[in-house]
Amino acid sequence: MITRDQYRTLTLFFVLFFILTGISMNGQKKLYDPPVQVWKPIQDKVYLQDSGIRIKTDKSVEAVASFKGNSFAVMDGKLYTIEGNKLHPAKDALPGINRLMEEGGKLWALTGNGLYLFKDEKWKRFDDRDYVDMCMHMGVLHAATKEDIYKLSDGKFVNIKPEGGYNTSDITMIMEDGSQVHADPVRLGPIKRIESYSNTLYVLRPGQLVLLDNTVVNTDFIDWGIWPSKDMRDMLSYGSKLFVSTERGLGMLRGASLFILKGEDGLPYENTTVLKKGFDNDIWIGTTKGAIRMLDGEWQYFAADHWLPGNNVHDIAVGKDEVIVATDAGIGIIKYEPFTLRKKVDYYEQMINDWGFKRMGFIHILYKKDGKWIREISDNDGGHTAPYLAAMSFKYAVTGDEEARREAVDAFKAMLWLERITPIDGYVARAIYSPDGDEDKMSLHGSGGLPAKWHKTKDGKWYWKGDTSSDEIIAHFFSVTIFYELAAEGKDKEMAREHIQRIASYIMDNGWMLIGMDGKPTRWGRWNPEYLLRPYGYQDRGVNGLEALAFMRAAYSVTGDKKYEEGYQQLVKWGYRHNTIRQKNTFPPADIAPWDDDLAYQAYYTLMRYIKDPVDLSAYMRSIARTWEVKRIEHYPLFNFGYGAISGNDCEQDQSAKFLRDYQLDCILYNYRNSYRDDLYIPKGYRSYETGTRPLSPRETQVSRSSRTFMTYDGGSNGNVVREPTDFILFYWMGRYHGMIGAPETTDVKLTSVKPLKKGEHFGAEPYNGPKRPKLY
Questions:
Q1: Which of 22, 79, 91, 308 could bond to 332 as cystine, CB 3.0-4.6 Å?
Q2: What CA–CA distance (Å, rounded) separates 420 from 476?
Q3: What is the rounded distance in angstroms from the CA atom of residue 633 to the CA atom of residue 601?
Q4: What is the rounded distance in angstroms from the CA atom of residue 604 to the CA atom of residue 621?
């Protein structure tokens, strides 16, 4: 019997052995094993995952508070309690509440009829003055009315104004002996806000910041810099800095120097309203267009409709693990929970089943019809299922989990069925429809807006969609070859090999075209030189040529049939290899299609692991390096992980890990707007070769596919669509397989997995209840 230390030593030995020899934990050789590896693995550290709740109201919410498990809101000066996702009138009726504030470890209500303290779960009147602000200064609670400042002493607020009144810092009023004589008393107010900074009380007045230097109201303490605007709204002291919100950015005082933080500095929106300390060394900023979190130099943006019911932020309250944002249309509650990327992928994998994304092995998007979630009859069943098939194959290679292999086999059989359902060997259907089992209707549109081409099977049980595009074909080669090498066993492997062979032969034997049921080439299924090397198909010559080369090289590698090697060499003679170098189109803008980048990377990943010839390798490496330089600004994991795995070069995988952490847990596609933002500048160290200036975080847009771009600033589906999270699942397990993402640092199951739903419980679409997929083997 070995000891725990001996077990750990053996485990470490085997892990190092697998890494150094290029063998996966499940025994297969690595798909890619570059001789030099520059990138380093990203640790799967514990981080705080955000999720949101929106509470819509008919009236504007003016103030919010979070205090020791109690949450409050104020509308029309009246107090409400926040319970779950609802507001309830509070039992204590307080008169005309202006603000709710937590100071000195207590919760206060500032009203037009005095100051109230929340104690023993009840509100009690504490003072009869009309206070406008409070702060802790030198360990003592201070409160301000519009004209004076008071400090708490022996349970009462006492005015700190000196008996002789305040003095001024204006040198024309100071006599030679230091005395001052004032024709009119020096006024401290009108006071909007007070704050303690550098052991000094600062007072925000309309259009002016002053400080209280003992008995002197000092207006001359800023040596360098000017304010971005005279419209000053709120103030926050944080460490070495004092922040002031204005309509034109943040004023930031450090020592005696004033700085301005604007869009070019990363501030998403400059019209700021509210400032609050966060719970994790962060600062929350309210604006007239959403809320902003400033954390370690990073700016996180939360706006309507996904995070907030309205954009105009009136107040922010920070609790232990949540932030409550009051807007003109209700409340947004942003909750934080410890997560790892491993836990997040587990969440999404369960979501695939819990939400009903799966149907007969296919993966579908959901949309709302008459208030009910139903599965869309996809225009691309294979393309939407391929990421899941590849992901489960990677997962099996990493973990050896038999459930992952079963999921991969199920998805593969669905992909296989797309070819077997058609009466033509090697011709793949776009989608399959059951008139007896599907709630959705067959789509009326096909490729490029042309009429859909649906065909009925002989037994009448199914319809399949034709006019198949190159998108579907590369999806089959990408996912099925990964399955073949990492997860297929026995009969699965034989069928996967045959599947690749049938499709490749059909394309090659038909003059490098996909011939449909009408005997004509499909709209986009063309890889022939008559199309790609002439003006009509010129824009497609790079990516389609890359696909054709991938088809032939993959088919030759899995079958050993020399006809595919001959086909590959024929494509090379036509110049397809050379054309791949500049396959990524960047001009004109109308010809830039983000889905082509997805197709290209699937083709790169399929082709280049079978390339040994140095001349071939030189061309393809230049091609993917050029493409990655264009795409790296987006931080998208498919582009970064794919390039890094193939080349071994630095690939900004840390940016992709952050991208994955920023993914929204909620996959409903709400509307989002970002084009009005003030921070849309090209990031330092990047160039924008296509459209747009900078990428947006998935937190600020929506769950998307790799066939779309995060350089699009506005979008959404009004909350009526749920996107399948399979891309995240693919990127995580692809990153784990190639060693770019490490295993979780923690072994706590609460941080690496989520609890399954109770038996019979589900969200989204009802389970599919139609005819079963026929037995294929």
A1: 308
A2: 13
A3: 16
A4: 9
Q: Which residues contact 698 (CB under 8 A, 6 or more apart)?
A: 659, 662, 663, 664, 704, 710
Q: Cβ contacts of residue 767 below 8 Å, gap of 6+?
A: 356
Point out the residues of the chain with pLDDT beneath 70. 1-29, 707
Q: Tell me, rounded to whole angstroms, the distance of Cα 148 from its chain centroid.
A: 47
The sign of the CA dihedral 630, 635, 638, 642 is positive
Q: How far apart are the first and last CA of the chain?
A: 45
Tell me which DSSP letter residue 435 carries.
Answer: T
Give residue for tokens 């587990």: 346
Residues 385 and 347: their CA atoms lie apart, in Å, by 18
The beta-carbon contacts of 748-751 under 8 Å, at least 24 apart in sequence, are 751/46, 751/338, 751/339, 751/340, 751/343
* Domain annotation for the chain: domains and CATH numbers: 340-751 (1.50.10.20)
**pLDDT the model gives residue 355:** 95
> Of 571, 612, 580, which is closest to residue 599 (Cα–Cα)?
580
Kindly give, in sequence order, each residue whose CB lies less than 8 Å from that of residue 299, ignoring residues fewer than 6 positions away.
266, 267, 268, 292, 293, 679
CA angle 686–692–694, rounded 5-degree value: 45
pTM of the model: 0.93
Q: Token pair for residue 190? A: 């009108």
User: Using alpha carbons only, what angle is made at residue 435 by residues 430 and 437, rounded to the nearest 5 degrees?
Assistant: 95
Instruction: Give the whole-angstrom CA distance, residue 317 versus residue 285.
Output: 11
CA distances (Å), origin 279, targets 48, 284, 295, 663: 11, 10, 11, 21
Tell me the C-alpha distance between 130 and 155, whole Å.
Answer: 17
Cα gap 393→492, rounded to integer Å: 12
The three-state secondary structure class of 334 is strand
Find where tokens 């949540």 sit: 322
CA 514 to chain centre: 37
Strands 741-744 and 42-44: parallel
H or E stretch including 577? helix 576-579
Q: State the helix-helix crossing angle for 594-607 and 637-647, rounded to 10 degrees.
A: 30
Whether 766 contacts 356, CB under 8 Å: yes
> Cα(717)–Cα(292) distance, rounded to whole angstroms?
23
* Gap between the Cα atoms of 65 and 74, Å rounded: 9
Task: Give the span between the Cα atoms of 212 and 200, in whole angstroms.
Answer: 7
| Nearest Cα to Cα of residue 642 among 685, 603, 611 | 603
- List C-alpha distances in Å: 120 to 51, 117, 123: 31, 10, 8
Secondary structure element (H or E) that encloses residue 106, with its range: strand 106-111
Q: Which amino acid is at 501?
A: Q
At residue 397, the 3 state secondary structure works out as: helix
Burial class (CB in 10 A: 0-12, 13-18, 19+), 218: middle
| Residue 92: per-residue pLDDT | 85
Residues 6 or more apart in contact with residue 705 via CB below 8 angstroms: 598, 723, 727
Q: What is the DSSP string of 316-329?
A: EEE-SSEEEEEETT
Q: What CA–CA distances, in Å, run from 99 to 63, 64, 615?
A: 6, 8, 71
One-letter amino acid at 466 equals: G
Please answer whether residues 302 and 291 qualify as being in contact, where contact means their C-beta atoms are separated by less than 8 angstroms: yes
* Residue 443 and residue 432 in contact, taking contact as beta carbons nearer than 8 Å: no
What b/e readout covers 265-286, taking b as 16+ CB neighbours within 10 angstroms?
A: bbbbbbbbbbbbebeeebbbbb
What is the C-alpha separation between 119 and 156, in angstroms, rounded? Answer: 16
Of 356, 363, 361, the closest CA to residue 377 belongs to 363
Q: What is the CA radius of gyration of the chain?
A: 32
CA-angle at 401, arms to 400 and 404, nearest 5°: 115
Spatial CA neighbour of 353 closest among 401, 306, 407, 390: 407
- Reading the block at residue 438, the tokens are 């599907």
- What's the rounded Cα separation, in Å, for the pair 24 and 396? 10
pLDDT of residue 27: 57
Query: In residues, how long is the chain?
Result: 777
How far apart (Å, rounded) are the C-alpha atoms in residues 657 and 653?
6
